[in-house]
Amino acid sequence: MTQKTYEWHSACALHRRLRGLVPRSTLLNWITTRKLKTHGRRGTAFAFCPDDLYRIELTETAKRIRLAEQALPPADPGQMSDDQLGDAYAAADSDRQSLLWLEISKRRERGGQATMRSIQDGMARRAGKMQPLLDKFAGVYWNPQTKQTTKTQGKTK
Question: What is the pTM for the complete model shown?
Answer without folding.
Answer: 0.49
